[in-house]
Design brief:
Layout lengths: L4 H11 L13 E7 L2 E9 H12 L3 H13 L9 E3 L8
Parallel strand pairs: 2-3
Antiparallel strand pairs: 1-2
């Protein structure tokens, strides 16, 4: 477990020099992940927290923040180390 964001960043950079971060969304990082069985560390962000950051920091409405985020952040593929944006869902009880 990491004590803080700086420790997480330093660990990722040391082990995966190509790891990418979404600028300005540091407070929305929820962990690291992998995809497709390839051992690449990808930064995972909470999508809702990213939207909240845009609304608070940039004074956007929910609709503006959602549109901006989808087009400029989620829609930006920058290679194999592109961060993951997680949409949390409520799980139905069994």
């Amino acid at each position: 477990m990491f004590e803080n964001l700086e420790e997480l960043k330093n660990t990722l950079i040391e082990n995966e020099s190509e790891t990418l971060f979404a600028d300005g969304f540091e407070d929305a990082i929820i962990g690291i992940g992998e995809q497709g069985g390839i051992r690449k560390a990808l930064v995972v962000y909470d999508r809702q927290k990213c939207i909240e950051i845009l609304m608070k920091r940039d004074g956007m409405t929910l609709e503006e923040a959602d549109e901006f985020f989808e087009f400029n952040t989620v829609g930006s593929w920058v290679g194999d180390y592109t961060p993951i944006f997680l949409e949390r869902m409520a799980c139905p009880s069994r």
